[in-house]
Every structure is written in C-alpha cells, then in structure tokens.
Amino acid sequence: MCAVSVDHRPVRPPAVEPGADLASPPAKRVQRGRWRDPRLWLGVVLVVASIVVGARLFAASDDTVAVWVLDDEGTAGMDVGADDVRAVDVHFGNASDAGRYLVAGASFPPGLHLVHDVAAGELLAVTAVTDAAGDVPAQLPLGVPGSGMPSDLARGDVVEVWAVPTGADRQSSLVLGSVPVVAVAAAGQDGVSGDRQVLVSLPDDVDLAAVLDRLREASVVLIRVGG
Asked: In which band, very low, low, confident or very high, does the pLDDT at 73 lie, cut at 50, 70 and 90?
C-alpha cells in the first residue's frame, strides 16, 4: 500500500506586478448589418430628395425668355428702332404669357411705331407697336424758333403749343394742350435764332383744320409741361 502525502500549505495566487491592467476583456457584441440600419436609409432618402429639389429649382430659374424692353419713355406715334430697346431675360409663370410681348430675336423688327405711351423699362407688348401707318396717331410738324422752345427738348416730352401772332392786334392763344413730342430735329448752325422742326402727336379728336388756321401767320412757342 502506497503512502500518500498531502500538503496542507495554502496555495497563493500568482503575484501581480504593480501597474498591471486588471480590466476585464471587452465584451463582444453582435453587430447588426449596416444596410439594415434605418438611420442609413433615412440619410440616403434625404440626400436624394435634396438633389431632386435642387435640380428642379435650377431648371425653374433657367426657364426664362428674352423680350424687348424700351430704354426711355416712349409716346404714341414714336418710331421705335434697335437703338431704343434692349433685351432682358424674364421668367414667366405661364409660358403663354410670353406670347403677349415682343420676343427678342437676332435683330429688332424695323418700321415699328408705338400705338400708345410706354414707360421707360416697360416690356414691349405686341399690342403696343404697329408697322401699319394707319394705326399711328396723326403727327404735326412744327417749325419752332430756337428761342420758342426749351433748349433740351427731346422726344417723349409733353408740350403745350402756343401761337404768338405777328400782328399787335391779336393775343397769344393755346392751340394744343399736352401733346407728346415724337421727334426733334438737331439744332442748325444758326443756334437759337434758327427754326427747328418739332414733330408732335395729335389727339384723335383734334380739328386739324382749326389748328392749322390758328398757326397761320403766327410764331410757335412750345411750353414743356409735366417736368
């Protein structure tokens, strides 16, 4: 029979060196697939939506039509040429609205006249111009002394036409009130002493025979009204 010896000495744990890391090893977690993360899909949806909205806004901002605009104020009967207009890009809410205005092409159509007054910077409507002489208001040429009109009188101004008789037994009289100036001839070499031709537009109901009779043997004076 074998003898068995039993050591009753206590078993000591292995010595731990100072500063040793006693932390437990990190627990392993089961990670869910990225493509199943709803936050990822939400981000994708937001990015796609922003791209679509941005593309639509860019397309809408570029959906413009070039139309003609009058640079300076125009009056009924005035000739309108390429030097009087400029092309601007306009965005119309409805495509059909663009058809109401003169669309800017390669060149401005020749031989057009204003049917009614048009403000400076206003879009030229199709109904505002005509190439038919019968649609243009009657125009009266006046020979005006340089001293009988403002030196800076220009097309588009509104004037009163006064007749100053040459005889001493007659008084000056108002012949036409508030008529627009269609054209002003350039001053000649005579300066203020020479006559200049001024073309004015006449109202539809004017008695032309009476106007011409009152201007006969009279000097014409133009008084600018409305600034």
From this structure: confident
